[in-house]
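Quick one:
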Amino acid sequence: MTGMAERDVIDGGEPRGAVARQLHYRTLTNPQAGAWAIYITHPGNQLGRARAPLQQADKHLPTVLFQVGRHPHRFRGACLGCVWESSQDFGHVLDAVEAAHDHTHPGWRNLLPVHEPPKDYGKAKMRRWLNDVTAVYPLGWFDSGGPVVTIRRDPANRRPLPGRAPGGGYDLPAHDLPAHDHAHR
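Output:
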């Protein structure tokens, strides 16, 4: 692998890091060969289909890798801004997303959970929700791709929702915590 340090190559010659793995996956003649790639619908997945050269992001952004063709799936948290990957494989995508956020946005677990955005998506209601949420989150949090932690209407809905936070980060389900009153209207 030209230009890669030895520490950047793992798993039987596969490159390390979400962007490098996605590039590698694009070159495979048998894409079901057990390679790791960015999981569908997660940030960076579109990279595998793009014609333009792929590059790492200029900031730490979370994503998820999965082992292609393996069932049940195995997941790893990963970063689009560096070669970091979780040292552990997970059986659930949420665990991998949370591990990625531990790397990219330390302190996210201490955020105040807020209620989900209004389902009717009316402009006034969404604007009020956005103002309330940004008021209780750290300054610049969403500009850095940080997640929003939400109390879900359906407690069984534990899926991480990529691109659903203000600023384009993940909407992560709260872990049985009370919602902050200011963001509930």
